[in-house]
Amino acid sequence: MNISKAAKHAGVTAVTLRYYERKGLIPPVPRKNGGVRDYQQEDLNWIDFIVCMRSSGLSIETLANYTRLYQLGDDTLTERKELLIKEREKLAVTYKELGETLAKLDHKIQDYKDGKFNVRKGCFD
User: Fold this and answer.
1) 68 with 81, same domain?
2) Rg of the Cα trace of the chain?
3) Residue 96 CA: distances (Å) to CA of 30, 54, 89, 93, 115
4) Is the predicted pLDDT of residue 51 greater than 90, yes or no?
5) How many domains is the chain built from?
6) Which residues span the domain enclosing 53?
């Protein structure tokens, strides 16, 4: 599959795919004659994983490190697992913070429904 079709499949641009490859987020993509990228299902799986992780807030550096470790083989299984656990812990904190913010917004919105339009001190008032 060419880069345009792979990009469409992933919901990103061809420029983004080239960037991901250049930064090491996805392993090098096999090429056809003339140097044209030829994406296979495994490449598409990598792209899907990277797009998902980027949308969740994982950094370019973290994902490049994960990909590098993956390419080194099974000797890095523990290290890869630990990297993902640390990233999950960070996301859990963010998730909790977002939940608290949503609750505060719900409270403020309820104030408007109740006819309390004055500005109150602090988020919890």
Assistant:
1) no
2) 21
3) 41, 19, 11, 5, 29
4) yes
5) 2
6) 1-72
